[in-house]
Amino acid sequence: MSKGCTKLKLKLSTSHLIHFLMATHKVCLSEFWAVIHVVLALSICLVGSETETARRTALFIFGDSTVDPGNNNYIKTIPENQADYTPYGQNGFFQGPTGRFSDGRVIIDYIAEYAGLPLIPPFLQSSAKFIYGANFASGGAGVLTETNQGLVIDLQTQLKYFEEVRTLLITELGEAQAKELISEAVYFISIGSNDYLAGYLGNPRMQELYQPEEYVRMVIGNLTHSIQVLYEKGGRRFGFLSLSPLGCLPALRALNSRASDGGCLEEASALALAHNNALSAVLATLEQMLKGFYYCKNNFYDWLLDRITKPTEYGRSSLKQNAWGLSLSIISHTHRFKDGVTACCGTGPYGGIFTCGGTKNVTEYHLCEHADEYVWWDSFHASERIHEQCARAIWSGPSNSVGPYSLEDLFFNIERKHTIADIADYPKDQQMIY
Ligand SMILES: *[C@@H]1O[C@H](CO)[C@@H](O)[C@H](O)[C@H]1NC(C)=O
Ligand SMILES: *[C@@H]1O[C@H](CO)[C@@H](O)[C@H](O)[C@H]1NC(C)=O
């Protein structure tokens, strides 16, 4: 409704402008058409920018340390689940450590930036406002309640917190506007690694109870349920970070007693792969089952494995625009990754003993000079440079590794693509509930 009004207003002012130009300038016919073209182009730009600034798509984040912006600073947990001490956050983007498990930003900070949003605050930060979204993620959290139980905000509790925010938004904005915000928002979910690492491989009892494939089914079953809960609450646009090759985390490489050459721990990577494949199948099914369900899933597993095995082929890239306005990604030779195996911050083989400041049992740690040159920041977590590059890939990503929608589509292009699909697939009178 409001969008229609905006367009009408612009149309009126366009024709007024043309009349004004005709009257004041006595233009001949060809000049008149030229003017119309210019004015039309102008009004299209106006419509574009007006909708973008007026309506910003909110971002809600659920997950673990890959996307925790500092929720764990506010809970009683163990040093392994916290990152609110130096050298975390050392690279200068933030004033100091924030609780992010990185030398600086994490993936969702970049996604917020690309979406034109401010940094999305941790839900537990008492002063936070949630008009652009909220981040519920907690380092160490898993899909299953049993994973690191009592030490993290598990996914079910994250969903409860989301309900609190939803209620708050309804109070603040009114039912209609809150509903619109919630249905247009993007829900970014990055979780599962801890279910397989701490929850399964680190938990002999679980391994006795469940075969690996049964366990994966249980994790995926609960994750699917959580997605459906969010859908029932009004969520429609979902982004997923798939699991990385978990066996190649420095901590797991260091544990791999069988490989004297320092290979990845294959059991861990196999669980991650099984999880990713099952999630892909579930998402394709949900897309068929749930009206208006849109998602973006990337292949973070292969993406990261490439950088782990061939670090020097990737690196800090800068976007340059060519003469046609196309953005080209240039990797300068001096800014390539140098190490895909060892943690920048840690100790022992591959920096795989998880210690990097704070009050961990092993207090001595080694810190590299240039975190930018490392795929891994600490024994479990990627460097800011990896977060940035991954965010860029998933934002606009090549369609062979990101799909069916990119995150940029979810934020800005769903309505346009949705309309095109409508014309192609549906009879005119059939409306999709959105
Ligand atoms: C969810 O996980 C619990 C264990 O936390 C399990 O008992 C239950 O069967 C799982 N649900 C689904 C739908 O897989
Ligand atoms: C650290 O030390 C405490 C107390 O000695 C012990 O309970 C805990 O399991 C240790 N943690 C790790 C990760 O080794």
Low-confidence stretches: 1-54, 425-434
**Helix-strand string:** HHEHEHHEHHHEHHEHEEEEEEHEH
State the end-to-end CA separation. Answer: 15 Å
| Radius of gyration using CA atoms only | 24 Å
DSSP strand tally:
12
Output the CATH class name of the largest domain. Answer: Alpha Beta
Give the strand content. 5-15%
The order of strands across the largest sheet is: 2-1-3-4-5-12
SS element count, helices = 13
Q: How many domains, as an integer? A: 2
CATH topology of the largest domain: Rossmann fold
Mind describing the biggest β-sheet?
A: 6 strands, mixed
Average pLDDT level: 85
Structural class assignment: alpha/beta
Task: Report the bound ligands by name, code or SMILES.
Answer: 2-acetamido-2-deoxy-beta-D-glucopyranose
Q: Give the % helix.
A: 40-55%
